[in-house]
Amino acid sequence: MANAASYKVQPQSAAVLRGQAVTLPCTFSGLTGEDVVVWEGPPDFRIISMDTKVTAGYGRHFVIGDRTAGEYNLQIRGVTLGDAGGYRCSTPSVPAAPNAVLSVIVPLAKPPEIIGGKRPTPVGQRLLLTCSSQGGYPPPTLSWLNGTKLLKRGKTPRNQDMKQTSLDFVINKVKKWDNGNNLTCVADQGLQGVVRPMTSSKIVSVSYPPTVTVPESSKRAKEGDLVNLTCVVDSNPPAVVTWRKLGGALNQGVTDRGQTLSLPKVSRHDSGIYQCNADNEISPPGMGTVSLDVLYQSWIDPSLNSKVSVMYGQDGFLLECSASGNPTPRVRWRRKDTSLYWDNPLRFHRVRYDVEGTYQCVATNEGFPATTRDTYVDVVGRPYILQRSTTFTVRRGDTARLSCEIVSDPVPKTIQWAWRDVQGLESALSGGENGVEITEELILGGKLSILSINGITEGWKGTYMCKGTNMFGTDQREFRLEVTGSPHTLVIVVGISVMVAVMAAVAAIFVFFFRKKWLGDDRKSDTTSVTVSRPMPPPPGYNKNKLDQLGSLEIKDLDGLIEIHEMNGTLKPRPPPRVDKEWTAIGLSYPAGRSSAAAQSEMDAVQISGRAEMFCYL
After folding, report:
1. Residue 550 contacts residue 534 (beta carbons within 8 Å)
2. Torsion angle of alpha carbons 98, 5, 23, 85, nearest 10°?
3. CA-to-CA distance for 325 and 228, rounded, in angstroms?
4. How does DSSP classify residue 51?
5. Is the peptide bond before 43 cis (omega within 30 degrees of 0)?
6. 100 and 126 both lie in a single domain
7. Domain of 259?
8. What was the pLDDT predicted at 579?
9. Are residues 151 and 117 in the same domain?
10. Together in a domain, 92 and 155
11. What is the superkingdom listed in this entry's lineage (predicted)?
12. Does residue 479 form part of some domain?
């Protein structure tokens, strides 16, 4: 039983074009000399061959292959439709394998034909198209497609001997959008590996009235530009397009090119509404309009002053710029040579010295360069001290340094310093007396004065005042000074502690009497070293006139704040000092009735390397 015969290759179904050759495989293994291989086929599974011997009447049939390898392949040459059907390869000792089916194909002689739709179909009417195919075996299945979209598929013909098949496609009411659709009829015999489907196409034509679409319903152009006005017309058959200007006539030089009207050099007089009309004799005609707006560059009213003066501390100061153009320009302000913009009018909620400078009114409209006009804002007024009144502490023997920074226009000639001691007595301070030094220097927009006191003692405690004055008024700030212990006290205490510890150890050796006397002497010496200190310098002399003068000053510490519209906290550089303006300057023109206000900034006090310094930054 191990050598029993069996199929090595069973017969396989195949499809072949009429007139070509085809081979049906069949291979056994384990055949004996007594086994006979038989091929049967159409009609009615008649015996075609036994082993390699072919039955009479099958002159186009041959058994081929290596017999020793068990190959009994059936080859049919010049295949005809009569060769189509089932085939069986078998031997008595082996159960028969499933039958193989041979399909014989006769290709279509020509593509299918589409009947109908030779003339344009009016929109809203019925369109009938018929696809017809003749010949072919097996008969083809017909389908309608729009591009790759399947619209309709016919039934597979049951009668294999049909000479003609057909399939209708109907659009009950054609629409404008159906125009130009590419409808395809496909005839498919279902054996794409052997024969390809055949197709025919038809472009649908629908007649409809004009529809006008305006790509740009409004258009802008600068004077002198070339302008093309366009109407897009959709119609079938094509429409005739004409142009006219509503409320006027077309200017000479205008070129009418159907859907496009060309204006070579427009002027502001060409502004208006233009209408295009399209007619293809199918009602209703189409119509569209285009609005043309001719632009010209903006300009700024020359009445804007090139320089304006404003009082420091003034509230609600406005600077307005008037401009016109087409389109209406956008008017903004910026500080010259910067890119930070503010809306018009330029608004100062409270004027401060650092707003002084050149500002530009900038007018811009689409399609044109920006137009600018400069205005210099000159801020004048009383002095303003940047430092805030505060209290700070200095160690005894160190140097106290007080800074007083004043901005104003004009700049004060000098900055005055005064001192009020703990008993309330006031006196003026000047450099070169009792270790007092006063230095002054010009800074951007004002003056800086520094008061230095060397070798601070308890006698210098109190309140210090700096004051600046010009033709518009006075500003004053107070700083309270506290004095703490000497910086050498810690070193002395540590030294004495070490000395006492050493002497206590040595004293234990001596008798009580000598130890008591030695320690008594040592305490006197130690007390003397601890109490030694630097002599206190005499306080400055009391000046009654200066005290009365300082007592009559009006000391203010109001918060000055500049708020420029949309400034977003951005600081602008302070203008240079107006050193050319003395406090006695005359001939200046200032607005009347301007109110003044002080501003307030932060001040830090820091003690470095035994010195106390106060600095303030706006």
Report:
1. no
2. -30
3. 23
4. T
5. yes
6. no
7. 209-297
8. 45
9. yes
10. no
11. Eukaryota
12. no
**Alpha carbon of residue 340 to chain centroid:** 20
From residue 562, alpha-carbon distances to 17, 351, 545 in Å are: 98, 5, 38
Q: Which residues contact 242 (CB under 8 A, 6 or more apart)?
A: 256, 276, 277
Residue 11 has pLDDT above 90, yes or no: yes
Q: Tell me the two tokens of residue 392.
A: 């700070």
Please check whether residue 74 is in contact with residue 24, taking contact to mean a CB–CB distance below 8 angstroms: yes
What CATH number has the domain bearing residue 134? 2.60.40.10
Tokens read off for 491: 């070193």
Q: Residue 66, SS3?
A: coil
Rounded CA-CA distance 537/190 in Å is 124
Cα separation, 232 vs 224, in Å, equals 25
Count the Cβ atoms, other than its own, within 10 Å of residue 100: 20
* Ranges of H-type helices in 377-447: none
Give pTM, 2 decimals.
0.43
Size of the chain in residues: 618
Instruction: Report which residue type is found at 439.
Output: T
For residues 498 and 519, membership in a common domain is answered with yes
Phi-psi region of 587 (alpha: psi -120 to 50; beta: other; left: phi over 0): left
Read off the amino acid at residue 104. V
pLDDT digits (tens, 9 = 90+) for 416-453: 999 999 888 999 998 887 889 999 999 888 899 999 99
> d(Cα 174, Cα 125) in Å, to the nearest integer?
6
Kindly state whether residues 186 and 214 are assigned to the same domain: no
Amino acid at 476: Q
Q: What is the pLDDT of residues 452-463, one digit of tens each?
A: 999 899 889 999
Residues 273/261, Cβ–Cβ less than 8 Å: no
Specify the number of domains making up the chain.
4
Same domain, residue pair 120 and 178: yes
Contact 327, 305 (CB under 8 A): no
The distance between the two most distant Cα atoms of the chain, rounded to a whole number of Å, is 162
In 267-370, which ranges are E strands? 272-279, 286-300, 307-311, 315-319, 323-326, 330-335, 341-343, 346-350, 357-364
- The 8-class DSSP code of residue 178 comes to G
